[in-house]
Design brief:
This protein is an alpha+beta fold and 198 residues long. The chain has one domain. It is built from five helices and six strands, in the order ββαβααααβββ. It has a six-stranded mixed beta sheet with strand order 1-2-3-4-5-6, with helices on one face. Helix 4 crosses helix 5. It is globular, with a radius of gyration of 17 Å.
Length: 198
């Protein structure tokens, strides 16, 4: 827990999945609350506490946090042994190297073309490089607890809390532009498949 980097504003604490993204959290929080105050993000309630996970939009394991779409129902996909082994042996490298790179290699296709064709944010801009893409996904989870006060940072990860996925936001971490805002179901994409308490 001490190794995690937290950034909190009001009742939302952000945790960056990649250590190098922790410097993006303050700007992301400002943009989220600007949109929330304009009524664009209706799943954030002032009386509740939330954790937001900042990640690459095509992070393959995001379905363990929330059901963000069928592309991230990892347990339903037919991945190669090489891909699964890579995810297990290099847990942080697979965050930086999206699944489209592996798929491109399997099909002998340029990874840049493969990723743009399957961009989870829906961007089709020829000049944008996937390696330097400023868009990130923030999956927001509501934290239920009985502490009688707002919790933030590592206190949100105590044993007496319940985590309920509520939505996700695709955001440009440089400009603050929000590309997608979506509610999610109150379950992970894994359904009844046992998952770690994230």
């Amino acid at each position: 827990m001490r190794s995690l980097s937290f950034e909190t504003e009001k009742n939302l604490t952000l945790v960056s999945i990649l250590p190098e993204d922790k410097g993006l959290c303050a700007n992301v929080l400002r943009s989220i609350f600007r949109s929330h105050s304009n009524g664009a993000i209706d799943f954030l309630k002032d009386e509740n506490d939330y954790v937001g996970y900042l990640m690459q939009p095509d992070y393959i394991m995001q379905g363990m946090i929330a059901n963000t779409g069928s592309a991230f129902h990892l347990y339903k996909k037919h991945h190669t042994i090489a891909m699964i082994t890579d995810w297990v042996l290099h847990p942080f490298q697979h965050l930086r190297r999206p699944p489209s790179v592996h798929m491109a290699k399997l099909h002998n296709v340029d990874p840049t073309i493969m990723r743009k064709r399957h961009c989870p944010v829906g961007i089709d801009e020829a000049e944008m490089k996937c390696e330097t893409c400023p868009y990130k996904r923030v999956i927001i989870v509501e934290m239920k607890h009985n502490y009688g006060e707002h919790l933030s940072k590592d206190k949100l990860f105590s044993f007496n809390t319940t985590r309920i996925p509520v939505g996700f936001i695709d955001i440009n971490t440089q400009s603050g532009e929000i590309r997608n805002i979506r509610r999610v179901s109150k379950a992970t994409a894994w359904g009844d498949v046992p998952t770690p308490a994230i």
